[in-house]
Write a structure and sequence with these properties.
This protein is of the alpha+beta class. The chain is 37% helix and 33% strand. Strand 4 and strand 5 form a beta hairpin. The termini are far apart.
Amino acid sequence: MKKVLGIVLPLILVVAVLAGCSKNVTKKTFANSFGRAKTEITYYAHGDDVFKQTTKDTIGYSGLGDSEIKTFKKELRSDSDKLNKIKGVKETISFDDDEQLLIETITVDYEKIDKKKLKEVPGFSEEAKKKKISLKESEKELKKGGYKEIKVNKKD
């Protein structure tokens, strides 16, 4: 019996691992600029079903006084702490004071997040209303809004 289990269990593990690897992941990135702000949105999907989205915003804050910048940074860090408490959401913020740029990255894992909590994530209220996120529909909406797809070299 032990001998049979010793042979069967490894086979089951191999099949499970191979089944998990069988889904092809599509990755598409779109970008748009608005003055001193730039946004890149990357979707990760199995077929048309988006399972993860990363949004990277780079925003210039020149023209603000020192006390305004300090308040700005404090408020953003507080908001970031709140977002990072939501399961399935990861936000990072950093500041390039030399270039006076804020760099914010929000990753939402749709397989882990509670859709009700998704409403709390800035820019994701429409996604919270949907049962699933369609890559084709998202691409269509972004292009309508002026976003361009960034073609990535497949040799990453």
